[in-house]
Amino acid sequence: MESLIRQAVNLRLKGNGKFWRQHNAESLLHCRCQWLSGRWNALVEEILTHRIYPNSV
After folding, report:
1. CA-CA distance, 51 to 44, in Å (whole number)?
2. Is residue 57 part of a domain?
């Protein structure tokens, strides 16, 4: 588990010349997890639904 965290977080988000604000890094990590788990399309649909109909759901 520790090596997975190192690979997913440290190598992806903490590379040379990469600077992140905490909120942006968390959002990017969340998106990456959605992609790897096969839930990318559901995430995109949810984002688009909330932007088109912000008061729904």
Report:
1. 11
2. no
Q: Domain range holding 47?
A: 2-52
| pLDDT the model gives residue 52 | 66
Q: Does any domain span residue 15? A: yes
Judge whether 23 lies within some domain.
yes
Q: What is the pLDDT of residue 53?
A: 65
Q: How far apart are the first and last CA of the chain?
A: 35
* CA dist., res. 46 & res. 24, Å (int): 19
- 3-class DSSP string for 10-38: HHHHCCCCCCCCHHHHHHHHHHHHHHHCC
What is the Cα–Cα distance from 28 to 15, expressed in whole angstroms? 14
Tokens matching residue 16: 């040379």
In this prediction the pTM is 0.59
